[in-house]
Structure to design on (207 residues):
């Protein structure tokens, strides 16, 4: 029987928010952090907050994006949980409202089967402040998990989802095992399990 595990990226597989690392270089990290926190708490529409935050990145050299993304800190236990789930027969996937520049190298490093995220637009090697992709909306993760379940012939009872913020709610609706990892209150309410220590390997005890 096929099994599916889907992880959020920022503040779940990765210890931090990718966009905050970018904003730090440009000198307005606090502004971006404030918007991110409100979006993850469910106080702002995810799409609107993403557009607003990425617009602030206009002018950042794309080479700097690549450099930052190569050295993002993985969450403790990330490698162990992926390996442990694969041993148990899971296909392991990452959904991110963030960016492919970050998810692709991290998922390759962790041995994750596929990643779905957004693309930062650059022209002449400089970010334009525009973004596009399949993970830009609050319902995007739910829509994608349903498609993956159909493709892999996986039932919701064999689906594990792990996230931390409001934009993970839509995928929580389609899984019987729902882990809020150091999660915001809005997500904890929808979870079947809460892990409140920064160690993803704790999830192996749940399954």
């Amino acid at each position: 029987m096929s099994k599916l595990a889907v992880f959020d990226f920022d503040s779940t597989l990765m210890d931090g928010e990718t966009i905050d690392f970018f904003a730090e270089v440009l000198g307005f990290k606090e502004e971006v952090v404030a918007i991110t926190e409100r979006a993850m708490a469910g106080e702002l529409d995810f799409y609107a907050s993403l557009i607003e935050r990425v617009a602030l990145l206009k002018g950042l050299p794309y080479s700097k994006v690549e450099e930052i993304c190569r050295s993002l800190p993985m969450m403790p236990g990330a490698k162990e949980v992926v390996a442990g789930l694969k041993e148990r027969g899971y296909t392991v996937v990452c959904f991110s409202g963030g960016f492919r520049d970050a998810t692709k190298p991290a998922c390759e490093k962790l041995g994750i089967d596929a990643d779905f995220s957004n693309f930062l637009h650059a022209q002449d090697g400089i970010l334009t402040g525009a973004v596009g992709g399949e993970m830009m909306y609050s319902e995007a993760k739910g829509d994608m998990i349903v498609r993956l379940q159909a493709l892999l012939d996986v039932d919701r009872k064999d689906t594990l989802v792990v996230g931390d913020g409001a934009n993970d709610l839509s995928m929580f609706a389609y899984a019987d095992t729902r882990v809020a990892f150091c999660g915001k209150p809005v997500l904890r309410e929808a979870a079947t399990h809460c892990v409140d220590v920064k160690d993803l390997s704790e999830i192996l005890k749940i399954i």
Notes: The longest strand covers residues 90-99.
